[in-house]
């Protein structure tokens, strides 16, 4: 045995956490794409060059919204939107979250689902976080879609900034949660397509509740300071 043979095999170099996959060729569907948050995400992603389809309960409503957005966005009913998309962003109101996902279980089999829904309540004191039985909206999605790849992201983005054509960059971080790191990296890469944004891995779905809940705090910040604050993580 030579000296070389006796050496242990070299360990592979650690992967750069900021090396992300190319997602430019993937089709993104936005369920709830006729609402403020859904429209904003659809507009920004399409403006960045992503192929985007927005979904609604009625195809006519989705097509009307798509025409208003421009940038090559298409509109379809929710089922067709889910079938034609590689990545499906869930941006529906919390009240319709479970029913929408339950009705699309077959169309979402094998799809990468990105839940950005924030379960919130409102009273005279302002916004407050709700705690779903499953723990979070994302965990509810995972329970309802056992054959889909569920992640959570895009919770803290201002719909006003997303939809403003005069704004070229939105300086914010997008916390991405999920069970499979490769799926999270796809979502991180999608976030990074929007100028100024950075996708950051933030843990497994069991940690989604506090990420969703933070929106209640941001609403208070924005009301107090008349702003459109997001989240920026330091030292990474």
Question: What's the topology here?
Answer:
Layout lengths: L26 E5 L4 H12 L3 E6 L2 H11 L4 E4 H7 L2 E4 L6 H7 L8 E4 L4 E4 L2 E4 L7 H8 L4 E4 L6 H5 L8 E7 L2 H12 L4 E5 L6 H18 L11
Parallel strand pairs: 1-2, 1-4, 2-3, 4-5, 5-8, 9-10
Antiparallel strand pairs: 6-7, 8-9
Helix pairs in contact: 4-5
What does this structure look like?
This protein is an alpha/beta fold. The protein has one domain: Rossmann fold, CATH 3.40.50.720. The protein has eight helices and ten strands. The strands form two sheets. An eight-stranded mixed beta sheet has the order 3-2-1-4-5-8-9-10. A hairpin with a 2-residue loop joins β6 (120-123) and β7. α4 (97-103) packs parallel to α5. The longest helix is centred in the last third of the chain and has 18 residues, at 208-225. The radius of gyration is 19 Å and the shape is globular. The model has no long low-confidence stretch (mean pLDDT 95).
The backbone outline, from C-alpha atoms, is globular
Number of strands: 10
Strand order of the largest sheet: 3-2-1-4-5-8-9-10
* Relevant CATH superfamily: NAD(P)-binding Rossmann-like Domain
β-strand percent reads: 15-25%
User: For the terminal residues, how far apart are their CA atoms?
Assistant: 45 Å
